[in-house]
């Protein structure tokens, strides 16, 4: 869904029909569907790419902020030996070890989180329905879900899985469960009116892979395939690590790592100053 489409839950229904060249009574025309399929593509989420685990491990261990931590750890070990002399400070050794442990733990946590996210996204494809009931040219018919396009009028009943992101047109006791996508464990009672300015919070919008627990109704498809909310989440999850957004977990870990690194650098500077002072006092001609 493009930035322009973020108002699709707010605008009047007539504007939605005009935007997608559709209407509730007849749905899309067969002639328009062909052009729409060329424009929007198939209603399929691009599957996650197979991961090169060695490259993923290398990225997490040596790229980004971890490269600085490796440098700090190596400097701490150098400060312990050989710069530590005959009586090296155990603090430098401890800081070096802590930095290396932080790198390994941080990388392991990131790899686990990334692989788990990819596995969850991939599992959604198994929940996708193979067919959907639509109204085209005024006729109700069943079609493969990968042929759906924005503007299609879909008919929904209890037990269905929503085949695309949609805005509800009618609802008769309709309740959907989007727990896998939103984390909300209780089913949501569907309405045909906007209930929130934020798209994800409005109950007149249904999301791809949501399960219909009760009731029946009709909806107009507003996004398909990679343009759905789930499709965008999948794209964010599977793209290169260099483009990942910083999560709260990453932010907290980086703060801790930065604290350790700063403490390490300050310790090394103090050690050097102390060593230079001792050298100047004991060997003034050196």
What does this structure look like?
It is built from eight helices and seven strands. It is of the alpha+beta class and 286 residues long. It folds into two domains: 3-48 and 130-227, Calcium-transporting ATPase, cytoplasmic transduction domain A (Distorted Sandwich); 53-124 and 235-282. Strands 1, 2, 3, 4, 5, 6 and 7 form a seven-stranded antiparallel sheet that branches. A hairpin with a 2-residue loop joins strand 1 and strand 2 (139-144). The protein is elongated and about 100 Å long. The model is unreliable at 240-244 (pLDDT under 50).
Which terms summarize this structure?
single chain, 286 residues, alpha+beta, Calcium-transporting ATPase, cytoplasmic transduction domain A, 2 domains, seven-stranded antiparallel sheet, ATPase_P-typ_TM_dom_sf, membrane, cell membrane
Structural class: alpha+beta
What integer is the average pLDDT? 83
Any guess at the CATH architecture of the largest domain? Distorted Sandwich
For the largest beta-sheet, the strand count, sense and barrel status come to:
7 strands, antiparallel
Share in helix: 40-55%
Q: Outline of this structure?
A:
With 286 residues, the chain is an alpha+beta fold. The protein has two domains: 3-48 and 130-227, Distorted Sandwich (Calcium-transporting ATPase, cytoplasmic transduction domain A); 53-124 and 235-282. It is built from eight helices and seven strands, in the order H-H-H-H-H-E-E-E-E-H-E-E-E-H-H.
């Amino acid at each position: 869904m493009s930035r322009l489409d973020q108002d699709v839950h707010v605008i009047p229904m007539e504007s939605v029909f005009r935007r997608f060249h559709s209407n509730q009574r007849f749905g899309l025309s067969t002639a328009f569907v062909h052009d729409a399929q060329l424009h929007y593509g198939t209603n399929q989420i691009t599957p996650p790419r197979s991961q090169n685990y060695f490259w993923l491990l290398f990225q997490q261990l040596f790229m980004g902020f971890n490269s600085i931590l490796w440098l700090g750890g190596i400097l701490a070990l150098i400060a312990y030996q050989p710069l530590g002399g005959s009586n090296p400070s155990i603090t430098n050794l401890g800081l070096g070890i802590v930095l290396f442990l932080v790198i390994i733990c941080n990388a392991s946590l990131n790899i686990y989180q990334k692989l788990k996210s990819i596995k969850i996204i991939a599992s959604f494809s198994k929940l996708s329905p193979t067919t959907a009931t639509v109204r085209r040219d005024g006729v109700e018919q069943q079609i493969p879900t990968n042929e759906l396009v924005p503007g299609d009028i879909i008919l929904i009943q209890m037990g269905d899985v929503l085949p695309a992101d949609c805005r509800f047109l009618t609802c008769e006791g309709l309740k959907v469960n989007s727990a896998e996508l939103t984390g909300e464990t209780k089913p949501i009672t569907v309405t045909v009116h906007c209930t929130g300015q934020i798209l994800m919070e409005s109950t007149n919008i249904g999301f791809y892979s949501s399960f219909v627990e009760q009731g029946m109704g009709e909806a107009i498809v507003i996004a398909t395939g990679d343009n759905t909310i789930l499709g965008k989440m999948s794209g964010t999850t599977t793209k290169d690590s260099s483009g990942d957004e910083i999560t709260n977990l990453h932010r907290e870990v980086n703060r801790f790592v930065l604290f350790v690194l700063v403490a390490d650098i300050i310790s090394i500077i103090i050690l050097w100053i102390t060593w230079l002072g001792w050298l100047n006092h004991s060997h003034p001609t050196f």
